[in-house]
Amino acid sequence: MPFLNENDVEWIEPPGHIRAYSRYLVGPEEQGSRHFDFRTSRYPTGGYVEPHEHDVQEQVYYFITGTGTAECGDETRTVGPGDVMFVPAGVRHSLVSTGAQDLEFVVVTSPPGIPK
Question: Which residues of 49-73 are buried (b: 16+ CB within 10 A; e: fewer)?
């Protein structure tokens, strides 16, 4: 199915994500994608993903609303609308929502297959 509306997809709280939710929109399970997955994420204030790394997956985060503190490798930065974070394979990273407004962003992961 080439088209969908994200409002038709349920929010889930993946393992290691605390009060941090994602909608998996395109991926192996959703549309049979072999090369990436695409999701939207929403972290209410205080929501976070624990520090972790992926053996082979690379990720791109594109922040839309809210603010947060992102760690990627040895760098920590405040992120907000318009910011992009690239996470290479094998690099430890984490994210916490710190603003009054929900931190909303999209994530593209390649190759797909990160456990939910």
Answer: beeeebeebbbbbebbebbbbbbbe
User: Terminal CA-to-CA distance of the chain, rounded, Å?
Assistant: 22
Question: Which amino acid, 11?
Answer: W
Is the pTM higher than 0.70? The answer reads: yes
Q: For residue 7, which phi and psi values (nearest 5 degrees)?
A: -70, -15
Q: Is residue 76 packed enough to be buried (19+ CB in 10 Å), middle (13-18) or exposed (0-12)?
A: exposed
Joined tokens for residue 28: 């192996």
Read off the tokens for 97.
């929502």
Q: How far from 34 is each of 16, 18, 59, 108, CA to CA, in Å?
A: 24, 28, 15, 13
**103-110, strands of its sheet edge to edge:** 21-26, 37-43, 103-110, 58-65, 84-87
pLDDT tens, position by position, 83-105: 999 999 999 999 999 999 999 99
pLDDT per residue as tens digits for the range 51-82: 999 999 999 999 999 999 999 999 999 999 99
User: For residue 104, what is the enclosing H or E element?
Assistant: strand 103-110
